Amino acid sequence: MGYASGNASRKPNLILVMADDFGYECLSCNGSRQYKTPNLDKMASAGVRFTDAHSTPLCTPSRVQIMTGKYGFRNYTEFGALRPGERTFGHHLKDAGYQTCVVGKWQLQGSVPGTKQRGVGTSPDQAGFDEHCLWHVRARGSRYWDPLVQTNGATEKKLTGRYGPDVFLEYAEGFIRRNRERPFFLYYPLVLTHDPYVPAPSSGETTAEEKSKDDTKWFGDMVEYTDTIVGRLLACIERNGIAGNTLVIFTGDNGTRLGVTSQTVDGPVTGAKGLTTAGGTHVPLIAKWPGKSAKGATCRDLIDFTDVFPTLSEAAGVPMPKDHPLDGRSFLPQIQGKAGNPREWIFCHYAPKWGGRPHRRWVMDHRWKLYEDGAFHDLRRDPEEKHPLEIIPPEATDVVKRFKEVLARMKNPDGTTEAK
Asked: Cystine design at 287: which of 227, 335, 379, 402 (Cβ 3.0–4.6 Å)?
């Protein structure tokens, strides 16, 4: 008998939703005055909203990190690829008896049309997923209107007249319905809100040209449709009678794209995807688990993407693999309203190998940030990092020493610390 029939001892279902190019400032519960996100706001009021979660500044490094729980120097090889043989949270939960599925954006198989990227990556099934419905597995095509979609290894098909985010949601809903009597893990990397910025189904009557032309005026509609997708997903869980046994986590893979400015209660915030400032790494994080999570709580603990794998593992009651580098730490206790074991710092190895972006490494906490090249910032007074401190303040002396020790420990496989 499954949970829907009353068996509360079953392992919990796990859902991880990750929006694309979706910074912290996009949610009204995080202070947006420009976008309305009632479903995610409601999710936060029923669960826990984390205010200090950080990704890497770019999509592939963040995706590799969140899926494997490892810092980039251990396994990030190239843009658009997940290194073959990497053990992911898909493998881990599948081995523990979970049905696993990924829907939305892949872009990890190692070939990026329109670029010189022709490396070797990993397919969805090789990454531990029983089922998939995805954009950009082998070929690229459109992710929005008339999307090019691959389902369970079949040849990609152009779905004329359809809107990609709706296609992926419908597959997710079917997966939930088919597996409501047994534990499942759904990884849902949304294609929204990455450019091209085009109208959503909620945008009203639009032309074929508008649906194919990149225009930032549609960004707000895409943010709000992201919220609609999450609302429909949460309604599906309720409809199938499994909400009380399902942990749902929502986040973004990196900051909003450069050039997109959003109005917030603290003034305008401009996206900085690809850059190492908060505008590139500060992302929303909300967790909801009815009856298990705190309700309407706000948590200021530092969280980074290596923490997601161990959090899912602990929620499932499955120990982390003994031979797996444990870079992250579970924040399940904080989801449950407990003190947990909060981080004192976040480390990031950023070697994007894309777009000519410089390679940088840093350690940060709520206030201070030290780069490996010695640049030191007071984030409280200089959040955009325009003025590196020339003299270390007395109250930061011990912080600098500790951060330097962290950087020295984080070595590449060849023993060096320089970003590769």
From this structure: 335
> How much is the pLDDT for 111?
61
Task: Provide the b/e sequence for 78-91 (b: ≥16 CB within 10 Å).
Answer: bbbbbbeebbbbbb
State the average pLDDT over residues 184-203: 98
- Measuring CA to CA, which residue among 123, 127, 120 is closest to residue 136? 123
Give the end-to-end CA distance of the chain in Å, rounded to a whole number. 51
pLDDT grade, residue 114 (50/70/90)? low
Q: Which CATH architecture has domain 10-339?
A: 3-Layer(aba) Sandwich (3.40)
pLDDT surpasses 90 at 249: yes
**DSSP string of 17-86, one letter each residue:** EEESS--GGGSGGGTBSS---HHHHHHHHHSEEEEEEE--SSHHHHHHHHHH---HHHH--STTB--TT-
Question: Residue 265 CA to chain centroid, in angstroms?
Answer: 24
CA distance 280 to 18: 15
C-alpha 385/C-alpha 391 separation (Å) is: 15
3-state secondary structure of 372: coil
CA 145 – CA 352 distance, rounded (Å): 29
Beta bridge partners of 304: 54
Q: What is the spatial distance between Cα 29 and Cα 54, in angstroms, rounded to a whole number? A: 17
Residue with tokens 């519960």: 29
CA angle 214, 225, 165 (to 5 degrees): 75
DSSP letter string, 249-278: EEEESSPPPTT-EEEETTEEEE--TTSSSH
Q: pLDDT tens, 20-33?
A: 999 999 999 999 99
Single-letter residue type at 103:
V
Whole-number Å distance between alpha carbons of 250 and 186:
12
Residues 6+ apart with CB under 8 A from 19: 26, 190, 192, 193, 226, 250, 251, 252, 253
Domain coordinates of the chain in residue numbers? 10-339, 360-409
pLDDT digits over 356-408, tens only? Answer: 888 999 999 999 999 999 999 999 999 999 999 999 999 999 999 999 999 99
**Residue 10 binned pLDDT confidence (cut-offs 50, 70, 90):** confident
Full-model pTM: 0.95
Q: State the CB neighbour count (10 A cutoff) for residue 325.
A: 14
